[in-house]
Amino acid sequence: MDSLAPKSDVRVRGSSHIDFKTATTGVAAKAMRNEISRLVATVEDPATKKAFDTEMQSFFLFTRYLSERAKSQELDWDRIKSPADDQIVPYASLPSSTDPKNLNKLAVLKVNGGLGTSMGMTGAKSALEVKDDMTFLVLTVRQIEHLNTTHRVDVTLVLMTSFNTHEDTLRIIKKYANQQLRITTFNQFRY
């Protein structure tokens, strides 16, 4: 006898599937934790060992992700709603600030972790020349420098680099040491 309930293409994971996935993930996580501990133990310098151990901890985020993924249910898209009109503040209705010193509270963050390999480059895409012999990074530096000079403020440029672009970026930004601009970098995890 056919059910009167509408048929759904969504398949919900059963508890036995979840138990199996959780168990196998747990075994894999324990094995990985042991291997990482062995690997960390091979580093002799204490400062390097501590930094390496901290970096290796990011693997445990992955095992937590696997565990949550094994337990997850399907997303109910019918429960996802757009925010109400009274929750959205149109940009045009925001009060304008007449005090340029508020700009001192501003920092500009640029993601600078991409390699330009698809464009035949071997380094950071920010080093790609895009206009009048200027790179993406030069254009950004000039814009912020103009802002700082015009309003006599100190807006910081923060570059989020990657494992692949960090050293290249540090080399490139040395030439801006005497500019009217502070540049700070931080390296995102490589995993």
UniProtKB/TrEMBL annotation:
Keywords: Nucleotidyltransferase, Transferase. Its EC number is 2.7.7.9. InterPro entries: Nucleotide-diphossugar_trans (IPR029044), UDPGP_fam (IPR002618), UDPGP_trans (IPR016267). Gene3D superfamilies: Spore Coat Polysaccharide Biosynthesis Protein SpsA, Chain A. GO terms for biological process: UDP-alpha-D-glucose metabolic process. GO terms for molecular function: UTP:glucose-1-phosphate uridylyltransferase activity. Pfam families: UDPGP. Plays a central role as a glucosyl donor in cellular metabolic pathways. Belongs to the UDPGP type 1 family. PANTHER family: PTHR43511. This is UTP--glucose-1-phosphate uridylyltransferase. It comes from Paramarasmius palmivorus. The gene is UGP1_4.
